[in-house]
Each structure stands twice: as C-alpha cells, then as structure tokens.
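agent> Task received from the user: take the single chain below, predict its 3D structure, and emit structure tokens. No templates, no multimer pairing.
agent> Plan: (1) validate residues, (2) run structure prediction, (3) serialize to tokens, (4) report one or two observations.
agent> Step 1 OK, no nonstandard residues flagged.
tool_call: predict_structure(input=
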Amino acid sequence: MQLLLHEIHASAGAHFSLPDPWELPTHYGNPREEYQHIRNGLALADLSHQGLWLITGDDRVKFLQGLISNDLPKAEERVGKQACLLTAKGKILSDFFLYPLSEGFLMTLECSNAEDTKTQLLRFRMRSKVEIERPHWGRLLISGQNAQTLIEKCFALTATEMQENSFFEKEIKGTHTICIKSSVTGEDDFHLFTPLENLENLWGDLLSTGAEWGIRPVGQAALETCRIEAGKPRYGIDMNEDTLPNEAGIQEQVISYTKGCFPGQEVIARIKTYGHVNKQLCGLILEGETLPKQGAEIFHDKKLVGRVTSTTKSPLLGKIIAMGYLRREALEAGTALSVMLDSEAIPAISTSLPFYSKHAK
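)
tool_result: status=success, residues=361
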C-alpha cells in the first residue's frame, strides 16, 4: 500500500521501503542529516499509515472502562492516556493512546496491530451501543527544537507549553485539525490530524511556514533511531502478546491500580503487591559496527539471559545500541554481556533506558 502523498514524497527524493504492507519513505537521501533535524532543528514526517480508530456510541465510556488497563481520560482535561488490552494472564494484546474528543475517543496505535485491536474490542461489544471506525484523516508529525514555535505560528497560539499527551482542536485555513503532543522521538513531537482531502495542503503549508527554521522531511530510518535512543518500546517489535507491561517498563503509564476490574487485573495486582518479573526491557551498548538481528541471543557468563528486540547505530553515542529483554541477574547497568551475531559473540554492556533524554541535554 502507498501513502496518499506518495508522489509528493517521491518528488522530494524519498527512498521507499518494500511494502509490508506499507511502502514508506525510509529516508530522503541522508538519514544522518534527517536525524540531526529531529534532534537539533525542525522535521516533518508523514505517519498517515499508523493505526487510528474513532470509538463512538452512547455506551463507549462504560464499554471501554471495563476492558482497558487504565482509567479513561476525562473530556474536560483535554489530555490523553496510554492503556492496554491484556489477556487473562496480564500479557499485552495491544497498547494504544486514547484521546477524549467531543464526538468520541480517538485511539492511536501501531498499524500492524490496529485490525487485531478492533477485533478484540468488538468481541466484547455484544449489545453495547458502540461503533469503531477509522476516520478519514491523515497524520503528520512535527518534531524538533522548533516544533513548538511552528505549532504556535500555524495555530496563532500564545507561547504556552502543552503538557505531554495534551491536545486541542482548531481550524487551519478553514479545515478542522487536531493537534496532539506525544513524543515518539524523545523530542517535543506534535501530531496533526486532518481530513485526507486536506493532507497535501497541510504538508505544503508546514514546509512553507517552517522554512525559516530549516524544516526538512524525514523518513522512518531517522525516526526509528530517535525512538530507540529515547527508549520507547514499540508493539510488535519490543513487546507482544507474550509480554507483561511490567517487563516492558510501561506499567506506570498504562495501569490503574484503583479502577474497577479489567482483564488481567488480578495478575498485574499480584505482581505489584507480592512479586516481580523475571526479565525486563533494558538498553545495550555493543562493540563493532554490525547491527544484531531482532531475536539475537544475549549471554552473560556463557548463560543465555535475554534477546535483542530493537537495534540501531546511534549518532549520539557513536556506537551500536539496542533494546532487549534481560533476566534479573544481568539487569544491573554496566554488566558485561555478549550478543550473538551469526556465530560470533560481540561484547556489550547493559545500561538503563533511555539512552537519550531531552531534559538531560
């Protein structure tokens, strides 16, 4: 599948990934420069392939509150929340963000898990008055040090700092647009949702308005490097239906320990009260120049202690970095490890996440 703006990306010099199922801009000629625009300047990306559902109907609050792992966000606060659908054993079927729009809850999530998430939700609908449909919206990302300034200029806002996961709705040139602040790179990231018929105009307007700050289109390669540096786990890569929220380190963001019952609650409550998890997602810094594959085995004192999930070459550290799950005995930062690349053991050390924090600059 191709993005609606495929030809515009191609004319800007985009190099595309093979369809799986989406053919996405990997980079526009120089992913290293694109990375620097995210970290130190102003970047624009097309995320219209990502999962998006609008959940409406008179029973939507009661329906969702009984299924998700977190309390629903309150409409009057204009702030979204991250939550999960869990199995009876507390494993993650899906993770997503919910935003209380006036017409319903907007759910944003990985495109690879969007249809399965809808299917899981509809299994419990029964006679509830609930509808789950994809709105005909595109999604653009503004990222970088000057992102807030561009958003303020586009929306004629005062210089007020938005908190993470807050949002607003406003007209841009007569078109209703939703702006959500939600970091995927470790920077101040703003996601703009607009009707598909307006997507090309918005893309052009952002490039034109952002020209004074050197705005540049960026592809998936730079975005993925920034995500890994920021230590943000991604569903389908760093967590799946075999992962507990506590193992992925997202329990503080996605779990309410005070709300009513939801699937998997008893397991999650027992972990908090009595137990611990045997493995956790952490960072790895590797020697050499070769990226390990997803699933590469990690050893400590010749004992298998974990596997790699995400990996990239970090411009920040000048080294190969990775995220992966380690057993408790290897979790302490600075533990000497080895990662298998084919039949070769590559030296590595464990480290806490994230590798990068905007507030630590």
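agent> Step 4: summary for the user.
The first helix runs from residue 6 to 11.
agent> Done.
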